[in-house]
Amino acid sequence: MNSKQISTLKAVFARPTPATLEWVRIESLFGAAGAKTIEGNGSRVRFELNGVVATFHRPHPDKDAKPYQVRDARVFLEQAGVTP
Question: Per UniProt, what is one Pfam family of this protein (predicted)?
Fold first, then answer.
């Protein structure tokens, strides 16, 4: 992971949940952690990491992830064994 991805990892696990985290940074973090990306229909995207699968909808037209998406990303990473 590069420094920006480590920063994103810390932001995902921050309390309170950030409301201004760009979705592309979260996707980049998933990729750096080794997650496999599976494109779905429309804005749906699925990630698989260490046997854990999570499905998300990319935010649009905004570029920032909603707080619930950041919380879901945190849960996905915790279940997959990735923590800061």
Answer: HicA_toxin
Q: 9: buried, middle or exposed (CB in 10 Å: 19+, 13-18, 0-12)?
A: buried
CA dihedral 8, 13, 14, 18 (to 10 degrees): 60
CB 11 within 8 A of CB 21: yes
3-class state of residue 47 by DSSP: strand
Name the DSSP letter for residue 17: P
pLDDT, tens digit, 9 for 90 and up, residues 31-75: 999 999 999 999 999 999 999 999 999 998 999 999 999 999 999
